[in-house]
Amino acid sequence: MDSLTASPPALRRLKLDQALALLKQAGYPLPATRELGLETLQAIIDGLCDLSLRDALTGLANRRHFRAALERELDRVARTGESALLLVLDIDHFKRVNDTLGHEAGDRVITTVAQRLTDCVRPMDVVARYGGEEFAILLPNCQPTFGPLVAERVRRSVESEPVQLAHGQEVRVTVSVGGAYAPQWVRSSASLWMERADLQLYCAKTEGRNRVCLEPTPVSSVSSEEKSMLFGVSSFAELRELGDE
Ligand SMILES: Nc1nc2c(ncn2[C@@H]2O[C@H](COP(=O)(O)OP(=O)(O)OP(=O)(O)O)[C@@H](O)[C@H]2O)c(=O)[nH]1
Fold first, then answer.
1. How far does residue 102's CA lie from ligand 1's centre (Å)?
2. Locate the GGDEF domain: which residues (predicted)?
3. Which one has a higher pLDDT value, 226 or 93?
4. pLDDT tens digits for range 189-223
5. Where are the domains of the chain?
6. Hey, what CATH topology would domain 63-216 get?
7. Which residues are catalytic?
């Protein structure tokens, strides 16, 4: 008997009520009936799955969801050779917003930036809140000639208008953007791709903020780590040995 079936009925009912309350609060549609039929159970499972993939403040994809999308995209690019761009963004001097206007104003800035990012990309692109004031956007099928244009559009969408706060207050914010393309025809990892985009974000910050830094073209050179993923070996020596066989 597993732990769920072993629970007393009252406890099970309580957990179910908690799940229903959570979904209701998040605005998920649930069947009106309180009968625990298949339809109700499926709606609860679907709702909880969806909730587990979203960031609570903005409703964007959360880190877990985004990492899975990156892995899927890497796999697709390795097979098809299409190009895909990853952008990472960080709100500039965000600590000042919190310190001078308060945490609630900071939250308002985060949700407004999230909305602007969502509005300026295609529905097929994945926008995520990756950390506190850090966002990431996955742009599948994005040609290198368009990359700089898209990244600049994203940067401008945040800068374009002040964020409206409570009591008629407003604040202007900007973002720094770093970007890297997925390596084509190579099996890479989400961490390596993210690292390369982060490096570009670091450049954008150190070069003065409110700017875009992108790796110029998709990387065609293959790192030793990526080579080992491609061939399933851990060192060049091992790779050479394989070639000699
Ligand atoms: N209001 C609010 N603040 C958050 C949230 N998550 C993180 N923060 C704050 O975001 C701030 C991030 O500050 P820093 O990492 O110093 O960066 P910064 O001030 O944006 O400076 P640069 O990135 O160097 O331009 C910290 O003060 C965090 O407390 C959140 O969900 N809501």
1. 12
2. 82-217
3. 93
4. 999 999 999 999 999 999 999 999 999 876 555 55
5. 3-52, 63-216
6. Alpha-Beta Plaits (3.30.70)
7. 133
